[in-house]
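Page 42, continued from yesterday. The earlier attempt failed because a stray header line got pasted into the input along with the sequence. Redoing it now with the clean sequence only.
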Amino acid sequence: MTASSETTTFRIGRRPLDLVFRTARLTAREWVAPDYVRVRLSGDELRGFASWGADDHIRVFFPDTAPRTVDEMRAAPSREYTPLAWDAEAGWLDLEFALHGDDGVGAPWAAQAPIGSLVGVGGPRGSAVIEGRPDAWFLAGDETAVPAVRRFVALMDRDATGRILIETVDADHDIPLDAVPGGVTVTFIHRGDGLAASALAAELERIDDAARPEGSVFAFIAAEQSIVKPGRALVRERWGLPADQVIVKGYWKRGEPEYHAPH
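This time it went through. Structure tokens are written below.
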């Protein structure tokens, strides 16, 4: 299929940001689902924090002990996350963590770290920003993509149309999405004992070519790295969406805790 010749109603623009390194402390924790937790980081250095793109990434550093210098903080184990919400004047930042068996530091820290624990926050380095209004939205991901999905939902107006697919373990682990416009359907796909992204990939493969929404469509697909091939097969090859109007990426990679999503 070739790309649609219809008039484009939006574009993804790039907006640079100065790379800033900050320190903050854990000040609150909220369990959103049995394996999904939201935390709040607070501190004076978070004043002025900015993140313009829903798919932005920051790098969070988790020191075992209080570092004496910035270099020591930057040497601590780290992982990348999507900023969920923040107040640049009050100096707080909310993040959400999917606890999907990560052997590293991020998920255990989010679940167990004492209130008051110190972290470093670097970035974001730049943003991919939707400029204009898509005629329709197609968002799909596993638990790790939910913060970005939430931010895309916040960009939708009340008349938005589209479809959201979220893969979780089962119905008891579904993650609620708030303020989704009535014209956007939300479907949870359950993988059970299957590998992460396997159920979502199968669902993408089942979607009929004729299910492509009309007009200029924004598509975002992110999950375990194996989702990239079926994701591109749907939105680029079968639906013919332009490359500059889609984001398809692996947010993490099975067996590689140091893997980070491409920017």
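Notes: Helices lie at 70-74, 106-112, 146-155, 198-206, 228-238.
Reminder to self: strip header lines before submitting.
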